[in-house]
Write a structure and sequence with these properties.
The chain folds into three domains: 147 residues, no CATH class; 83 residues, Helix Hairpins; 137 residues, Histidine kinase-like ATPase, C-terminal domain (Heat Shock Protein 90). The protein is 53% helix and 21% strand. It has a five-stranded antiparallel sheet with strand order 1-2-5-4-3, covered by helices on one side. By secondary structure, it is α+β, with helices and mostly antiparallel strands. The chain starts with a helix and ends with a strand. The longest helix has 52 residues.
């Protein structure tokens, strides 16, 4: 939910609560004002009746039809002190056919030697009318508040938050490969200015750290290859000298270690480049062609290991990927199937427009298959594998928003890539 929408909902919720409390309070304030006005009218009526009694007018002990049908004047048997009582009462309403609350005033007056009880009741406005009026007013106010809130919300969303949206857009489009930090743009809102300055400082630092890390990785990989090549050459020269069988074994072991270290350096450098998104440009790559050319290139190696390769490839299957990454992806998959196979084993390759499936016979993995995509994870710890092939494959797949799965069943390792 957007910030503006949350603000509007919160604003309307508070408005409804405030209007509810305001309506409840307004009802009693209005009723009190009307009751006060009615009391003054009743007092005027009492004073008028008192005046008429002083003038000798006689009132029967019933409702007077001549003066007011809600007026009752009764002569008391004894003299009482003048007094006025006001209270609420219920009176039958003929029109509504129900008991309605009314205000009643009872006044005691003495005229000459006689005391009188003057009672009158009524209502200036019915309570239902007050409730209806207050409800209508509150609904009108609420409606105008909603319209106003929506209008303000659009203004806030479209104009006030425009610098914020622009900053978010620039952050989304920011890439380290461009090596260009986000520059702060001035706005008329202090908080947005602070945000833009913070983003500028953070991107400056991120770009600087990226450049330093990239240079370090490239330099380390380059500088490491030079001494490795020298050591490799020296060991090759050493094998041409007169060595004892034991010394020759030592030299061979050293050569294997040097080759493994060289592959490790190259693989780590490649992983770093992939994770730094240096292969961002994509194009349609003919995956069918890559697989066919690769299987032909490995024919001698396949025959040397006594492997049987079966292929079922649809023609002209294209994938959206950087050409270099596409070649690295398939090469690692195919080499993995060859390297982790058994003597006289089989490899099955199936390619459709939806998925690539490569299966090979082999020993059961020593760890769960879902962990083999991690760095330095190997199915067999006794092999010469450095444990980065599947990790490189997983990074390429993730970068191109594909999905990959690894399964082992009935002596077959199966990797499926959905494209």
């Amino acid at each position: 939910m957007k910030l503006t929408s949350k603000f509007l909902l919160l604003y309307l919720a508070v408005t409804v609560v405030v209007l509810g409390i305001g309506g409840y309070t307004s009802y009693f304030i209005i009723k009190d004002e009307l009751d006060t006005e009615l009391k003054w009218r009743f007092l005027d009526r009492v004073e008028r009746v008192t005046y008429l009694l002083e003038q000798g007018k006689n009132f029967a002990d019933k409702v007077s039809d001549q003066e007011d049908r809600n007026l009752i004047v009764s002569q008391l048997p004894s003299t009482v002190e003048p007094n006025v009582e006001v209270r609420d009462t219920l009176v039958w309403n003929e029109r509504l056919q129900q008991m309605e609350p009314n205000l009643k005033m009872v006044a005691y007056r003495t005229v000459g030697d006689n005391s009188y009880r003057i009672a009158t009741y009524g209502q200036l406005v019915e309570t239902d009318d007050i409730t209806e009026a207050v409800t209508k007013i509150l609904l009108w106010i609420l409606g105008m508040q909603i319209i106003g809130a929506i209008g303000v919300g659009f203004i806030v969303s479209n104009r006030l938050f425009k610098p914020f949206r622009d900053t978010l857009k620039r952050i989304k489009n920011f890439t380290l490969q461009d090596k260009e930090p986000i520059t702060a743009e001035e706005t008329n809102v202090k908080e947005f200015d602070d945000l833009n300055k913070f983003v500028e400082e953070m991107t400056h630092k991120a770009v600087a750290d990226y450049i330093n890390l990239k240079e370090f990785a490239e330099n380390a990989s380059h500088e490491l290859q030079t001494p490795l090549s020298i050591v490799k050459g020296k060991l090759e020269l050493l094998t041409e000298t007169d060595l004892s069988p034991e010394q020759y074994q030592f030299v061979e072991a050293s050569q294997r270690s040097i080759k493994k270290l060289s592959r490790l350096s190259e693989s780590l450098a490649l992983l770093t480049k992939i994770e730094n998104h240096e292969f961002v440009e994509t194009e349609k790559v003919n995956f069918t062609k890559i697989i066919k050319e690769s299987t032909q290139s490995f024919e001698e190696f396949i025959a040397l290991n006594g492997l049987d390769v079966e292929t079922d490839l649809e023609e002209n299957v294209f994938v959206e990927m950087h050409p270099v990454l596409a070649d690295i992806l398939w090469t690692n998959l195919f080499q993995n199937a060859i390297k982790h196979n058994v003597e006289g084993g089989s490899i099955s390759i199936t390619l459709t427009n939806d998925a690539l499936t490569i299966s090979n016979t082999g020993e059961a993995p020593s760890i769960p298959t879902d962990e083999l995509f991690g760095r330095f994870k190997k199915a067999d710890t006794n092999t010469s594998s450095i444990g980065l092939g599947l990790s490189i494959i997983k990074r390429i797949v993730d970068q191109n928003n594909y999905s990959i799965s690894y399964n082992y069943e009935d002596g077959w390792h199966t990797i499926q890539l959905e494209i």
